[in-house]
């Protein structure tokens, strides 16, 4: 018995990628470049070893487009999301703070939202302003500014920087630092994306298209709650009362904590993407949350029951437990990736990192560059 049941594997043959990208920047700038750039790559190069923006184009050139490609592509994106949060927060000078936590929540929420929308509509929708396009360009711009001026650039007040402080209306508004203003802008963007994704799902449900997923009595909006629950667990752990100077926020344990959170999130959305390509039921509970819930409960024992933590009694033990959480999260995610890749490649008779083709007898072999069509 493999990781995937037979009916899920059978549904892989019905999979067809559908995507919509309304970004003007993609249409007139990036896509023409990608279309040219992919032609520079030999046909013997597997799509999954190429750059993120051209892997799909390379897959179509080599005849390897399929569900595994989407799983691999979005799985890498899910991991990159947390890494981008860490790097961008450092570039903005946010440091180990609740602003960085807020950035993590907002960024992961956007990714979860897009995956939730794709599951229910059957297509990946990128609007006129999306994270994978304009969001990345904006982050690159932040890196360039911070690289030239230093992170202290973002500590300037927004009205002072824009020279609007002297205006009567602006004088009544708080002169937030640029980095905090960026976070506020991101919150409005998240709100807009939630509304837009909901409208797309609602329209798909009314038309009966709904991504052709299994019939479910659970309203789509309720399937946003798994992300809320997982985020609340992490917040509860971070917001625990300080005991014997044991603390995560503001300590060396903060970055591994975010990485563990990111791996758990990647596992969560990875199962959602798998459910989409196999037309299976939407995954609601992820048992790996239990590990973080243990950390949150243990850290909050002084607040809830008035007793000292059983595990996180010192800063060193807290740090070790966070690192152990990171290891557990990495092992769980790695196991998921290996089992899913094994089952899909065995069933479809394809490879993940090499280009293969069928011979006259229907057997798969590594393809020579001059034989790939």
TrEMBL record:
<feature type="transmembrane region" description="Helical">
    <location>
        <begin position="182"/>
        <end position="201"/>
    </location>
</feature>
<dbReference type="GO" id="GO:0008654">
    <property type="term" value="P:phospholipid biosynthetic process"/>
</dbReference>
<keyword id="KW-0472">Membrane</keyword>
<dbReference type="InterPro" id="IPR000462">
    <property type="entry name" value="CDP-OH_P_trans"/>
</dbReference>
<keyword id="KW-0808">Transferase</keyword>
<dbReference type="GO" id="GO:0016780">
    <property type="term" value="F:phosphotransferase activity, for other substituted phosphate groups"/>
</dbReference>
<keyword id="KW-1133">Transmembrane helix</keyword>
<feature type="transmembrane region" description="Helical">
    <location>
        <begin position="33"/>
        <end position="54"/>
    </location>
</feature>
<dbReference type="InterPro" id="IPR014472">
    <property type="entry name" value="CHOPT"/>
</dbReference>
<keyword id="KW-0812">Transmembrane</keyword>
<feature type="transmembrane region" description="Helical">
    <location>
        <begin position="321"/>
        <end position="341"/>
    </location>
</feature>
<dbReference type="GO" id="GO:0016020">
    <property type="term" value="C:membrane"/>
</dbReference>
<dbReference type="InterPro" id="IPR043130">
    <property type="entry name" value="CDP-OH_PTrfase_TM_dom"/>
</dbReference>
<comment type="similarity">
    <text>Belongs to the CDP-alcohol phosphatidyltransferase class-I family.</text>
</comment>
<feature type="transmembrane region" description="Helical">
    <location>
        <begin position="125"/>
        <end position="145"/>
    </location>
</feature>
<feature type="transmembrane region" description="Helical">
    <location>
        <begin position="246"/>
        <end position="263"/>
    </location>
</feature>
<feature type="transmembrane region" description="Helical">
    <location>
        <begin position="221"/>
        <end position="240"/>
    </location>
</feature>
<protein>
    <recommendedName>
        <fullName>Ethanolaminephosphotransferase</fullName>
    </recommendedName>
</protein>
<dbReference type="Pfam" id="PF01066">
    <property type="entry name" value="CDP-OH_P_transf"/>
</dbReference>
<dbReference type="InterPro" id="IPR048254">
    <property type="entry name" value="CDP_ALCOHOL_P_TRANSF_CS"/>
</dbReference>
